[in-house]
Amino acid sequence: MEAYNLTVKPWCSCLLLGLFAVITFLSSSANAETHYHEFVIQARPVKRLCRIHNTITVNGQFPGPALEVRNGDSLVIKVVNSAQYNITLHWHGIRQLRNPWADGPSYVTQCPIRPGATYTYRFTIINQEGTLWWHAHSEWLRATVYGPLNIHPKLGSPYPFSTPKQEYTLLLGEWFDRNPMDVLKQALFTGAAPNVSDAYTINGQPGDLYRCSGKETVRIPIESGETVLLRIVNSALNQELFFAIANHQMTVVGVDAAYTKPFTTRVIMIGPGQTTNVLLTADQPPAHYYIAARAYNTAMNAPFDNTTTTAILEYKSASCSTKKGQSSRPILPRLPAYNDTATATAFTAGIKSLSQVKVPTAIDENLFFTVGLGLNNCTRPNSPRCQGPNGTRFTASINNVSFVFPTTNSLMQAYYQGVPGIFTTDFPPVPPIQFNYTGNVNRGLWQPVPGTKLYKLKFW
Predict the structure, then answer these.
(1) Is the pLDDT of residue 26 over 90?
(2) Its principal location (predicted)?
């Protein structure tokens, strides 16, 4: 038998490495799936707080369907608008890399889907794992049109922590005891702040502390000693929320589809649109414990919903009498005060990257944004359309520019097709007036300038 001495020259080595990379990519792509869904936007009767409302839902569900995918999977979602409103859907947090037409903000990346029309979203999950969510992106339809988008690791890829026995998604929301679109319509007419919600919800249910709600309170079953993963989403329209579980600590392991360095806490603070993944270990005496959420609100003299929503963490080994409700009510967690900024700050300070992050040091563009709520003066103060402070109208703004929706084209369509007169490219990179950004706003910024202004950035 002859022995062969195989010598590979450098260029061959590069070729072999390239082939290996291609084979690796193809093998990982082979495991990726394409998920097809049809979402029918439709009004359906939903009963909450003793009353039935004709509520905009997806496939008759409130909250809407859960999307369970893996990193690398693609989604094709046909949206059929059978409701009476224009609508778009936004896949909150998905990196729409070179695929902005699937992002969904109405009049920005697309025109709304009109009643009776359909639109198909197509996008791929690229290097993201964890919890995101989807929701309507047209006015206040997202008060009821939303659902989770859970991204699991690729097949064969583990979590960066011990695999939990079970996973549960908890969608925190706001419920209005009337049509949310009417609440918005009234606010736009009067110029005053919109009415606050009548209840907070967990997975669409207000919980035991509200009228006519106890029977449908969400229950999370758990075995003594086991660890579960809770995917927590703040689907509320406007409200930051404190969240806690009575007598239990949580270990934060991810936020907004990114893993984080684990840390333990008894309370989390979560803003609208944010997600937080926590590990929960059933290490307490078998019983029933309240899961609860309520407002974190520091705005002085601003009304807010000060109620508390609950679900129940239910140990499976708890006594039968407890399960039948014959014992006392479950224990409530000690939630922070509504204006407890120290607790909110301590929580956010604990969120750190799982690994070192390389931050770019060469800055091409320097932008400084101030987001605020301005006041437009009225020719007839205190008239029915001027019910804001001192006879004005509230107006949101960034760098003192209040966005005006285009009427004929979406911004992206106008940009790609070179349609003039839809937007200008003079959005200010800094506030027009410098002031103490943590104190009172300069009077020169009280009245924003209306406009459809953009700021162009290069894509690298």
Answers:
(1) no
(2) secreted
Q: Give the pLDDT of residue 255.
A: 98
**Chain segment 132-179, per-residue pLDDT in tens:** 999 999 999 999 999 999 999 999 999 999 999 999 999 999 999 999
Sequential DSSP letters for 363-389: -S------EEEEEE--SSTTSTT--SG
pLDDT band at 308 (very low <50, low <70, confident <90, very high): very high
**DSSP symbols for 8-38:** --HHHHHHHHHHHHHHHHHHHHHT--EEEEE
Closest of 139, 135, 119, 40 to residue 83, by C-alpha: 40
- In the chain, the percentage of residues whose pLDDT exceeds 70 is 91
Are 58 and 64 within 8 A, CB to CB? yes
Which structure tokens are listed for 222? 């758990």
CB 411 within 8 A of CB 425: no
Query: Mapped to the 3 state alphabet, what secondary structure does 173-202 carry?
Result: EEECCCCHHHHHHHHHHHCCCCCCCCEEEE
Are 367 and 429 within 8 A, CB to CB? yes
Written as one letter, the residue type at 289 is Y
Alpha-carbon distances of 3 from 6, 7, rounded to whole Å:
10, 13
Beta carbons of 173 and 200 less than 8 angstroms apart:
yes
Exposed, middle or buried: residue 345 (CB in 10 Å: 0-12, 13-18, 19+)? exposed
| CA distance linking residue 75 with residue 77, whole number of Å | 6
Structure token pair of residue 307: 């109620």
Q: Is 399 exposed, middle or buried (0-12, 13-18, 19+ CB in 10 A)?
A: buried
**Band (104; pLDDT cuts 50, 70, 90):** very high
**Would you say 248 and 284 are in contact if contact means Cβ atoms under 8 Å apart?**
yes
How far, in Å, CA of 309 to CA of 199, rounded?
A: 7
Residue 263, strand partner residues: 252
Mean pLDDT of the chain: 91
Nearest to 111 by CA among 409, 416, 421: 409
Pick the more confident residue, 398 or 435: 398
Across the beta sheet with 371-376, the strand order is 371-376, 393-398, 401-403, 449-451
How confident is the model over 220-240, as a mean pLDDT? 97
pTM of the model: 0.90
Please identify which residue in the block is written with the tokens 């709520």: 373
Q: Report whether the peptide linkage leading into residue 384 is cis, meaning its omega lies within 30 degrees of zero.
A: no
**Contact partners, residue 198, CB within 8 Å, separation at least 6:** 49, 175, 176, 177, 305, 307
